[in-house]
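2024-03-11 09:14:02 DEBUG pipeline.ingest accepted 1 chain
2024-03-11 09:14:02 DEBUG pipeline.ingest length=419
2024-03-11 09:14:03 DEBUG pipeline.predict start
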Amino acid sequence: MVRQKAYELLQETINQGAGALGQFLETALKRHLLFIMHDGMEYYPERKPAGEELRQVIKHLPSFADDQFHYIHDQQLLVMQVSLPDAAAHLYLLVRRVMEADIPAIMKGVEPARLALTYFLRNEITVQHRVEQKTNDILSQAFESQRFRIEDILTDFDIRLDASQDYHVMLVDLGDSVTDSTAVDFKASLMQFERKHRDLSLYPLFWRGKGIVILQDMRDQVELTPSEVDSSLRTLIIGWQKSFSKRYGISLSIGVGDRHPLREMKVAYREAQVALAYGETKSRRGFCKCFQDIGLLRPLFAGGMEPVLTFCRRTLGRIMDYDRENDADFLITLKLLMETNFNYKAAAEMLFVHVNTVRYRYDKIAQLLEKDLSDPDVRFDLYVAVRMSEILGVLHLLPVGYIGDVRERQHGRTASGES
């Protein structure tokens, strides 16, 4: 009898999805329940990020087997699970207002649905993989291809943007410890933030390990000057950043592009990339950098990447080639010399080499460039080019090895290997 019911439920789930399965269980158990995946995404009764309280419950569940349960006494919350031997994903069934004495009957009532629940979990894993691939294809077209209109592409995410409005793009780096639940927390947090701030319209996405937020410009929603709107938007973003970091223990780094009409969304995305990369070269984690605040580099990068690459190669190409061919540190040395106002001793201490090594490198750099390094105009061009090359390196637009960090090098290099 149980087996027959299990096959019937499997067929209903195949035909009708999680809704039919959830309704059967609610009728059988005479209780409301939820299906929540390991990442905090709710699938029944609605498909949406689960509430904050429940996401925290899922995140801190101990390990237990499918034929066991977890019971939180003070919340009268019963948690059961379905897992697969060949996948890390779990589907959790959460039932509220459960007395301990009722647990055996509830576990027995769920038993006929386990085959269907296992099918649903495996099918959802397959669907998620397809969605991830489609997401990558769609967003690659939206932000990197010139052949498609971004407003047409984003409708696949049920994002319908107004062609008469301006938009910002915000890129959020959540660090190296991003999990499936982090992406759900990110989206849920921004949805809650939008509900709290009625003047703000935003559309959160997650792509290539980073959060992308499309922000509608606030100028038409509030009676403020353009500079006041920019300041207000920055304040709101930093407020959300601090709140998210405090709640989830994740240090967020943020880059924000200038406002642009919808047809120039790709430009706003590129500016957000540059702002984020700029911050990574200047700060530790936890910054919020706007493209309009990167100084002289803003108009230079606003012209596109190719002129920037050309300027870097023309200005620093000989040094880059020498470093690559001789495993040398001339570009790092030049960077530190400029940052220390050409103080040989200070640069030597930062490079962990003798001061004479720095003097040698200085003369060799001048020789390679055929430039007078005491000329202010020459120094200016070199500093701009070095800063550009650092940003391009973060964006992986310069070949590996062209720029580095002295802290990543082995200490103790001397001039003996460079002469």
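2024-03-11 09:14:41 DEBUG pipeline.report Residues 149-294 form a domain with the Alpha-Beta Plaits fold (CATH 3.30.70.270).
2024-03-11 09:14:41 DEBUG pipeline.predict end
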